Amino acid sequence: MLFSDKIDMTINVRELLVSEFGMAEKVWQNYHQQKADPAADRIFAVFVDGALAGVARCKLHTDGNELDGVYVLEQFRGQGLARRVVESLITACGDAMLYLHSTLELIQFYRSFGFVPIQEDDLPRTIKERFAMCFGEMMGCNVCPMRRDPLLAKRGQ
Known about the structure:
Blueprint lengths: L10 E5 L5 H8 L12 E8 L2 E11 L2 E9 L8 H13 L4 E6 L3 H5 L4 E2 L7 H4 L14 E6 L1 H6 L2
Parallel strand pairs: 4-5
Antiparallel strand pairs: 1-2, 2-3, 3-4, 5-7, 6-7
């Protein structure tokens, strides 16, 4: 009898309820120990066989929306789960302009969703302030500001 090395896993991606935000915070303990804000956050999660594998957040600022907090637990990496959770977030939040601070090595990943690098000064004030410690040198902090314009993304530009 032949056995396949491929294991079938059930993958589910959905937006978390506010009552489930603590699960995201447990994942974020491995990623800058971020905290969820029920008044400003929409958090999306990817589950593998019922286990929380990764999260992404759409943070609603007064002057723009920010994609951040994308993190997949190490044991689940390399399976396209970050892509799945970001796709879910963009489906739900992508009708508005989205901003993010990408690490330099992930610029191409975010480009695949329609994000383009922008100048630091083109970020909304509240989103820009999150990286004030870089003193106007985000590249020196290994960070590139990016924006996804929903109109351009729909046209594939």
